[in-house]
Amino acid sequence: MTSQATTLDLKQWIRDVPDYPRPGVLFRDLTPLMADPLPMRYVTDRFVEHLTEVGAEAVAAIDARGFIFAAPAAVQAGLPFIPLRKSGKLPPAVIGADYDLEYGTARLEARRDALSPGTRVVILDDLLATGGTAAAAVHLLRELGANVVSCAFVVELTFLRGRLPLAGIDLFSLVEY
Question: What are the beta bridge partners of residue 125?
Fold first, then answer.
């Protein structure tokens, strides 16, 4: 790994989109970061380092953007990848967890045989906002018997206080706004 990769400022690849998806919201667009191998390698390397530090035995990711970051990190770390999908996207038998959205509810599902009880899992996702989706992922994995040792994010929107629903869990973020 080069010294440049250890000091990369990811914010230069994160585009601010005002008033999207509705007026008053400042959207943090990660697609420029995803389009460039340099920051993607940096993110992957940092996540792999974190997985090693916390002794992860598996990597789980939240549908869909979490997959973009978690799958390469899982492969590089030599760990199993567990997709947490939106309802109806996995073949049976699945287990699910419902969570609240601003205008309704949603559901995450995982295969019942996704992991062995006690497996040390890290959840990786692109962004931590209010923490509702990540908290549902933690609940779902714990229902499967996993030991969720950390949640890791590319971006954390600290002003939305997403750490509160994840109290007691190690949190790791590469970029904070």
Answer: 153
